[in-house]
Each structure stands twice: as C-alpha cells, then as structure tokens.
Amino acid sequence: MASASLSRRGLLRQAAAAVFPAILRGKTRHRPNILFCISDDQSWIHTSFAGSKFVRTPAFDRVAGEGVYFHNCHVSAPSCGPSRASILTGQDFYRLGPAAINHAEWPRGTSTWQDLLAQAGYFTGFTGKGWGPGNWKAAGRASPPSGRAFNQVQHKPPVPGLSPVDYAGNFEAFLRARPKDAPFSFWTGFTEPHRVFDPGCGVRNGKRLDDVEVPAFLPDTPVVRSDLADYAFEIEWYDRQMNRILKLLDESGEAAHTVVVMTSDNGMAFPRAKGNLYDYGTHVPLAIRWTEGANGGRKVDDFVTSADLAPTLLWAAGLEAPDTMTGRSLRQSLTAKRASIVDARRSYAIMGMERHFPGSRPGGAGYPCRAIRTDQYLYIWNLNPERNPCGDRPGPVWPADDPVGGFGDIDGSPTKTELWQQRGKFPSLARLAFEPRPSEELYLAREDPSNMNNVIRAPMYAEARYTLRKQLVSRLVKTGDPRATGKDAEVDAILRRFPTVPEDVSAAETRRD
Fold it and tell me: 29-347 has which CATH code?
C-alpha cells in the first residue's frame, strides 16, 4: 500500500514537472528540443564575449548575447572523461567509479540525460566526441552514453589536426533521420581546440603574435605566443562550424523552440591549466539560449558546475531529475529577470581530480586533489603532496615524441617543451608547473586571477582557510566522495585496474583525450 502511494506521488510529481515549463513559457505545450555543444579544452576567458582580444567567437557570442551567459561555470573535473561523465550524469565526478578517470570504463547501471530523454520519446544522437576516452561497452550499453553516433559525413579541414568530422553536416543528417513530430536532443562534440595543433597554423591563418595575450603562469616567448595563436585558430574553427549549425537550426524553424547550450569540458591544454584545479583548468565558458523558456540578454554571476546541466535539461524537457544527481537545476537562474547574482545559494563551486593520463606514475597512481572556488578565494586540498602533481619524469610521454620525456599529466606541447627547456630562464614559472605542491593552497581569486601567489600561510587568511576547508569537506562528505568518507582504497583499486592506456583504445581516440 505504501509503495502504491509513493508511486502515485511520483506520477503526480512527473506530471507537474511536465506541465510546469509550458506554463512558465506561456507560449507552447510542446517539449523543447535540445542542442548541446561542447568544445574540447577551452578556458572561459577565450571567447570574444568574455573579452579576449585574440580570439573571435561570433557564434558563441550570439548564443551568449541572446541567451544567459554564466560567468562562473566550473567543471567537476578538469579532464575530458570525468568532466563529460559529470555533465552526462548530473553527478560530481568522484561518485562515478571508473568514469572518474580517463581511459577507463563507464559505470554499469548509470544513466545519462540522453538516456532519460530517449526513454521519454526524444530522438537522441551525437556527432564528434561524446563521452570518453573510455570503454562504454563494458557497462553493457547498446549505445554510447551521448546517444547514437552521427559521424558519417566527413570533410577535409584546411589544416592537419582539425577533425575530419563535418559537425554541421551530421547535424543535418540527424535532423533528416528524426521521426516526425519527435523532439530531439543532439550532442555536438567538437574535438577542437584539443591538441595536437598544426604548428604555425594560427599565424598562417591571420593571427598576429603581438595580439596574443599570454597568461602570467606561462613564459612570454615567441614559441608560447605561436602555440596560443594555434589554440585560438582551433577555437575559431569550431566556432565557424557552430555558426553553420545555428543557421541549420534557424532554417528548421525551431530555433526559438530549442534549448542551445555552449560550453567546454575543461580548460586549455597548457601547463598549470588542463588537469589542474586552477581557474585556467576548471573555469569554462557557458551560455544557454532558450527563447521560449528563459529570459535572455543577461549575464549571471551565480556559481554553477557541469553537474548542474543534466538536471537543467531534464527540467526543460518536463522530466524529474533522479535522486542520484548531485547537480541542481539552473531553472531559477534561467527564468529570473535580474542579472548578476540570481540565486544567492550558488556562492561556490566544488571540483577535483584523481588522474589525467594513465601511466603518469607507477602502478596507475594519481594525484587526488579537491577544491572550492568562491567569488573571493580558490582553496585547494592536495591529498598526496609527496607526489608530483603532473606525473613523474622520466616517465610516459604525451604525445609519444614529447621531448620533455615525462610529466604525463601535462599534455605534450611546444609550450610545455619551451617551459621545461627554458626553466633556467623562468625558474619560478617552471617550479609552479613541474614541481610538488603543498597539501593546501589558497589564492585570492580577484587579485590573482592566474592563481600564482599561494597565501595559505598568511595569518590574515587563517579564518578563510579554516572556513573554506570546512565547507569543502562538508560538501564532499554529503555527496559521498570516497576520499572524504574513508573509502580511499576503493578509488586506488580502480586506478590500479587502469595503470596504462588500454590496448583497445584507438590511436585517434587516445590523441583526442
């Protein structure tokens, strides 16, 4: 009897959720389409909407200007696989077992928002890169976590390193395959601006090295400026493909009826960025446009994380988020009329890491760390400070011809090589990138946006240190982080199961991790 009552209540909640967005909009009774677009390795600052002077992103700027731009979006983990798993499941990365690291497996029995939408009658699919790198078949899935693949349409990009997948062409093929009257949910997974870049492609395609803005934690040399120019060119390439996709959506007549999300899975693939809990690693662009259901033309300063996207998309579709989701719907931030701070409870973001590239340390060992970011501070807790945060040297190299010869948790690049080879000229920058770190770090986020001056030992910040540590641990315990609840052995066992890149992972997938 009790279970029947619970079932009725569940049905009533689902019914109420289904009609609520339509009532809110007052313009439609139909479920909206979803167009989810994610770049690969792009820091928040590198859009022209965010103020970049050397990266031009008109497609992103259009979505951000017509929709809601979230100034403080942070990923759950600054590494491709765990970040994408968090986005798809609506959970903090550390709850996802083997999916908490790259090159592992999808957790058996774990659903995604694409799965739930498909069960509710949505036509789902993806192009480019979905979840990964990792093995989703090991979980007994019939299809990838991001839906059915649409990668058949190919083209020849202008330079090496860019994906041959024609994202817009595959979106068009997806729309043609869509059953009549079915709402759709499509994941567009750009593989740009992931490395490897074609050296000098930025300058050859109109970038000026004098215009490049070099973050304070990198050496300002011609090599680094050229590497950043190549990175900017790849961002602009994917943005041009996004513009084609938006035109197709406009031509379909369903643009106003479609939730468009643009974001990235983690920050740029440079030392002290991707794979690290500093802002250039975790802080990513996020813009959401939904003409029928959100009040656009606003910038919101609420802190949000990638785990918040799944419950948001389910809410938009009129579905209730499962209890397993630790993310919270952005409904209030999207539907409010005011800008800046909309939901005062969203005053911080939690993020962490276990390991980026398998094989960076003997036995698959990682570098577990957790962080909390507020408007004023970034506090980082390094659980094994005796280890090197970027991996051992000598050790596995990434890519195979990386002349640095190790530090595998930093993707190989001209900048990584330059910083290592010129470490005598830039000792403080090399130390920040390659050497061990203390168990705790504290940065003044407003005054030190590059997170270079650790003030953890300054007496004037002792209270902030205590408060942030307490807040971080409380949230980790509440959401079941194994590292905060005495279950370290479970995580370490998973890391040992995947000490190196599995043999069944293709070279192309490995390069685009």
Answer: 3.40.720.10
Q: Please state, in angstroms and rounded to a whole number, the distance separating the CA atoms of residues 419 and 130.
A: 32
pLDDT (tens digit, 9 = 90+) per residue, 318-332? Answer: 999 999 999 999 999
What is the DSSP code string of 261-283?
Answer: EEEESS--SSTTSTTSSSHHHHE
Query: Of all helices (H) and strands (E), which one includes residue 118?
Result: helix 113-119
Instruction: Output the CA–CA distances (angstroms, integers) from residue 376 to 303, 305, 370, in the order listed.
Output: 12, 17, 17
Find the radius of gyration of the CA atoms of the chain.
Answer: 22
**Interatomic CA distance for residues 455 and 465, integer angstroms:** 10
Residue ranges covered by each domain of the chain: 29-347, 350-511
Q: Closest Cα to residue 308, out of 287, 329, 290?
A: 329
Q: What is the DSSP string of 5-49?
A: HHHHHHHHHHHHHHHHHHHHHSS-SSPPEEEEEEESS--TT-STT
* Assigned CATH topology for domain 350-511: Arylsulfatase, C-terminal domain (3.30.1120)
Nearest residue to 114 (alpha-carbon basis) of 95, 135, 136: 136
Q: Is the peptide bond before 193 cis (omega within 30 degrees of 0)?
A: yes
- Sequence length of the chain is 513
269 contacts 38 by C-beta, under 8 angstroms? no
Residue-wise pLDDT for 115-167, tens only, equals 999 999 999 999 999 999 999 999 999 999 999 999 999 999 999 999 999 99
pLDDT band at 168 (very low <50, low <70, confident <90, very high): very high
pTM comes to: 0.92
